[in-house]
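re: ur question from the group chat, yeah i did fold both. here u go
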Amino acid sequence: MSFLTTLTATSAPDDGSHLFDVVDVLASSISTLITPMLLLMAGVMVIMGVARLFRNLNSGYSDGSGWGFLVMGLLAVAGAFGLPWLMGSYDAPKGGTPTPRPTSTPSTSAQPTTTPEQTSQPLDLTWLLIVFGVIGALILTVLLIWIITIAAGRARRSIRAAHKSAEAQRVAKERIAAAWQGFHDRHNELLRKIVHSETDWDSLFFLPALTDPNVPQTYAMLRAMRAAGTQRDTAGELPADLPAGVDLTTLPYPKAVEAFAVAWDAAERNARRLGQKGVPLAERKLIKEIRTLLDMAENSAASQTERTLAYRRAQKLIESLETIHVPEKAIAQLEERQQLMITAN
C-alpha cells in the first residue's frame, strides 16, 4: 500500500486504526532512510578515527581527535539500531481487536455472559541483544586496532633503536680502527725519520747529536724506539670488543708510540740546538771535504775513475772522524750506491 493510499484510507472517521498504519508507514520510511546513512557515517568516523590514531602514533603527538571520531562512530551505530526501535515503540497495535459485545441468545435458563480476556505476549528483546552485540563487536574491534597499533609502534621504535645502536657501534668500531691504524702510521713515520737521520749526510754532519747514543736525549729516543717495536710485535693488533669511548692511549702499544714520538721530538730539538758545537774546527773542515767528495762520487757526469777515487777518499776520511758518529747503515748505503754505479757502467 502506498503512502497516498494509506492516507486516503485514514480519512474514514469510522475506523481509527488506519491512523496508526500511516504512522507506521512514516516510521518505516524514515528508518529506511536514516539507518543506512547512520551506518555509513559510522563507518567513515571509524576509518577517520583509526587513521588519526595511526598518524598520531607515528608523529608522537596525540590531540585526542582519533578517539573522538571513534566515539562518534559508536554513537552513530547506536543511533542506526536504536532509532527504528524508538519509532516503532510508539506504534499502536495494528487493527485493534474490538471488545466483543454480549449477545442475547434464547435459552431456557439465564447463563452469565463472559468477556474473553486478551492473552499478553512476552516482550521481544532480540533487537536489544543485537544492538548490544554490534556495539560490543565494534568496541572490541577498536580496542584490537588500538592494541595492534600500539604494538606495531613499539616494534617500529624497537627496530629503529636497534638500527641506531648497530649504526653507532659500527661507526665507533670504524673510528677506533682508524685511530689504531693512525698509531701504526705514526710509528712508521718516526722510523723513517730515524733512517733518514742515519743515512742523510747533511743530517749526519750538521746534526751529529741526533745519531750519537752518548747524548742522553738521543739515547732515550733509541730506547723508546726499541720499546715501541717490542709493543708492536706483542700488542700491535687491535683488541677485540673495545668499548666505544675507550682511550687508546691507555693501551700498551699506543702508549709506547706516544712515548717514542715525545722522545724523538726531544732528541731532534736538542740536536738542532747543539748543531756542530761539539765538533772541533779541524774536523769541520774535514767534513766539508768529505761532503765534496761524496757529491763527486754520486755525480753521473763524472767519469767512473773520478767517482771511484772520490768514493775511496771519502770512505777513508769518514773512518778518521772522531767526534761524529757515522752509523753502519750510512756506510752500507754508500757502498751500495757505489756498486750500482759500477754495475751500470
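okk and heres the other one u asked abt
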Amino acid sequence: MNTAELLARNSFIELGARERARALLDPGTFRELAGPFDGLQSPWLPPQGVVPQSDDGVVVAKGRIDGMPVVVLAIEGAFQGGSMGEVGGAKIAGALELAADDNRRGEPTRAVLLLETGGVRLQEANLGLAAIAEIHAAIVDLRRYQPVVGVIAGQVGCFGGMSIAAGLCSALVMTQEGRLGLNGPAVIEQEAGIAEYDSRDRPFIWSFTGGTQRVATGFADAFVDDDCDAMRAQVAALLREPVAASHRSEQVAQYLAALQAYDASAQPTPAQVRALFQRGTDA
C-alpha cells in the first residue's frame, strides 16, 4: 500500500468493536441486542478489584450485509484483552444458537465473529472455559446451515480457546496486522524459554502467526488490507458461499500428515512451515 492509499484508507483496525460491527452491516440495519444499557456485566470482576464493563466487552448486533440476515458478534479487545468470561461468552453462544434456530425456522441467518481476544478470562477460570466450549458447539451447529465467518483484524489477535473457535468457522479473514495462534507469544516464551520463542521479536512473531502466513498455510482463507470497504466486501463474498462439504476442522488426516513430517529438533523458518502445511493439506 503506497502513501496515497494509506492516507485514503478507512481503517477497520482502528475502530472499536461496536464501530466494526456497524461498518460491516448495511446502513440503517444495525440493531444491538443485550447492549450496555441492559447492564449485563460480569459479577466476578469487582470482588477481584477489576472494574467491569456494562456489555462485558462483547457487542451483539443484528442486521444485514448485502441484504443477507446476519448476526455480528464483536469482541472488544480494549477491555481485558478481549478475554472471554461467563457473560460475554454467553452472549456470543446464545446469539449463535438463536441464529441456528432461525435457520431451522426457515430464516437463513448467517454469523460474523470479530475476534480480538486472548482467550479465556483468567479471573473467571472454569466459567470462561465453559462459555468458550458453548461457543464452539454453537459454531458447529450453525455452520451446517449457513456460513460462519471469522475476522481477525488486529491488534490483539486471536489466541487460546477462541483460536479454536476461529478454526471452527466456515471461513476466516485476516489482515497483515492480525495474529492467530493457540498460545500467545508470552505464554510460549514463559513455558519454552526465550531461545524457543522471543515474544519481543515482532517480525519473528508475525512471520509465524500473522495474517500473511496463516493464509499461506491454509489456516485462514482470505487476506484483506486494513480498509473498511475491503473488509466488508470480503466478508460479504464469504457469506454468499454455499455451506462447505467439509470444514477445515474436519480435515484431520491432512493436518496430521503435515505434523508427522515436522522435524522438531530444529527451529523451522516461516518458509519451511508454509511448505510443510501446503504439502500436508494438499495430500
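fwiw on the second one: The mean pLDDT is 93. The radius of gyration is 19 Å. idk if thats what u expected
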